[in-house]
Amino acid sequence: MSKFTDFGYTQAQIDEKFQQVLDTIFTNEETKFYYDNGDGTAYFTDTGNDDVRTEGMSYGMMIALQLDDQAMFNKFWAWVNKYMLITDGPMHGFFKWSAQRSGVSNAEGSAPDGEEFFAAALLMAANRWGDGEGIFNYTAEAKSLLHEMVHKDEEEGGRGMFDPETTYIRFVAEMDISDPSYHLPHFYEVYAQYGNEEDRAFFERAADASREYLKKAMNPETGMSAEYANYDGTPNDFRGHGSFFSDAYRIAANVGLDAAWTGKVDAELTDRVVKLQEFYKGQIEQENIPVYWIDGTIVGDKETEDGQSLLYVKHPVALKAGMAQSTLATPNNELSKYYVDLFWNMPMRDGVYRYYDNLLYLFAFMSLAGMYNKYDKQASADRVLVPN
Known about the structure:
The chain has helices at 3-6, 11-26, 54-67, 70-83, 112-129, 138-151, 185-194, 200-217, 251-262, 267-280, 316-325, 334-344, 354-368; strands at 34-36, 42-44, 52-53, 98-99. By secondary structure, the chain is mainly α. The protein is globular.
């Protein structure tokens, strides 16, 4: 399925543009943020924070999987295991969410979205390429990680990444709140199918529960959700992240990919996405887009506790990319075409904040081109492009 071809773009146009996207991220010296150390490890750097994050490393592994580039996949995973793996204490088996480019740790705790992508990428890597040895035994690595994510609450002093009662993914293991953009039901179905048999029922329940949670978190009139939210879906303004801001731009995109991978299109959830698309139509083309509370009122001249201005959208390319990817969950109508065309004609981001924007751009491009797929056992890609 390709939304691009649905709306009149040719495969030749798609392939040419995709190669440009890959070159921007991986090879162009002025714009790239991928670095190969030449020692069997590689990393993405967050250009806005000058660090390496499990978010970006797990995205890199998923991208390498989709590109059928096992060597790149292994280099990302080797860097993560060398510098980010927590080997002792109550969080053993998780990964420190931030490190310096040299590998020196910046953090003691983890951010569950990284672990979620690691687990999904590893399981599908096993399906696509087969298992190797050591850390490249993808199935064993994924199953071990998923066990810790689910069962660490059973250890003395431990806190898992999934709440045992609700099955909701936690914002961080230590807190009983969530980040709606971490809810990835399409990944949970992969975990249920290929992960630990003992947790199959848990992840089947988690997939359904996450779809229901998103309906609570996404405002029924605007489709917006806060970056951080309570288990009842209401915004949680922890450290000033209770508005529709950067993390939240991934939510509608995730709904779109869930629909594409699983074929499960929930009418109420689709309506939330359409409301979001309607809310932003037109104003999303402004040079400065206001930041909103989820009820559609403007936040104004405020900041998060870490100093991020909430006056205007910080990552406009990411917002537009997420809106385009959300069309995977909606009909091929004029509203969907508006966002796909807007995305197609939008340049990638340059400058210091290009990391987050351009990764979401790449995911949206692959999704709309039919190049971001679930890999089952013995599956193979029809079309593969790799960076020059």
